[in-house]
Amino acid sequence: MEQKYEPVIGLEVHAQLKTKTKIFCGCSTVFGQEQNTSVCPVCLGLPGTLPVLNEKVVELGVKTGLAFNCHIAGQFKFDRKNYFYPDLPKAYQISQFDKPLCYEGSIEIHVNGEDRKIEIVRAHLEEDAGKLLHDEQNRMSDSCVDYNRTGTPLLEIVSGPDLRSAEEAHAYLSCVKSILKYLEVSDCNMQEGSLRCDANISVRLVGQDKLGVKTEIKNMNSFKAVEKAINYEIKRQIELIENGEKVVQETRLWNADEGKTRSMRSKEEAHDYRYFPEPDLPYMRLDGAFIERLKATLPELPHARFQRFVRDFKLSEYDASVLTAEKDIAEYFETCVSIFSDAKTVSNWVMGDLMKALNEGNKSLSDNLVTPGRLAELLGLVKDQTISLRSAKVVFGEIFLTGKSAKSIVDEKGLVQISDTSALEKIVDDVIKKNPKSVADFKGGQTKAISFLMGQAMKMSQGKANPKLVNEMIKNKLS
Length: 479
Ligand SMILES: [Zn+2]
What we know:
Bound molecules: zinc ion
Number of helices: 15
Oligomer: single chain
Number of strands: 16
């Protein structure tokens, strides 16, 4: 079945731009304020008010466009998108129709060991709507609207129909999120709605050029939901076609509890919105110097950093992709490597013990007590053989809890590795005496028997024996 049909997917990502105030008025954008307290006559759409464009919104939009390799419009304008809905007090949304701020860009995604170039058709500015709150306990008998979100700045990023599977859609979305976070233009918090995604999906016979009839899926609020909803919709459309039925062009809602999409409304065409230029805002002109100034502030982006990590630190592609997906992890890693230069070891600890501890302790990298300096100090103690790797794991756990330095924990707990040969000799002799069978096995050519003897010696020293020395001593004594 999958061989016969090819899915065609395009994503529309709405990212809330990180500004202090709304796009056309001075109201605060802080999340979680008491309902309808961050509103004013402008964002409530009262008669006689006029919008004033927030310059910061343009700045963040242009930066994002540049990072997505887009052309930046020298001139752009806003348009009214007309529709009626209770969360939209003006009965129109100020958006951009035919002259978006950014257009014709692309990004590279890495999926299944392959680089894929995904077109960015456009990225335009618009204002968000309010939020309807339904009292679901009383069977939706009571509905309220909160206008705090009305007028929050959004950048809508529209991809080309270039994605061919739910997996590619996931990779694309991760990449978009990663870039937005590197740029610090959006906090991309999906739970708070600052990153939202709609998917346009159709299927066609493999080898066919003509696109099939598409549906648009809304209401997906996690990466997992996006992947599941797309897979569900591909399957649903193929089944319809196989049964001789037709796919209807419509907007569908993803229901995460049921794991299904359901029809919401027939899909509107652009002309249904009766777009016309927003008469209350002038045509905007951007001068080249403004764009150049922003270009100069762009940070190194995730893909470039990924390539640098592979090249300069000789990391595997997998390690480099995990370490560069989020800016703060990449920075943590680099700070640590600047103190302790064995990049592979640092990578193992960051991706292993550190990430595990953060997940289990439900902590973020920034509020965790194992600073890059503390981790580097710990790794130094392992390298110069002051402590064993086994002790290092214990010390790591202790730094994570207390924030103390590795050295002070090693002293407190008496974890300094025993490298004194006379002390080790006693342990080794004892182990040999108590395990005649393993000794005989080893002498009989079963070299594996040495691991058991090693284990016994480490146990007897409470993990403090220098394993390299113990290994040498056992071998010497038995040969
Ligand atoms: Zn306002």
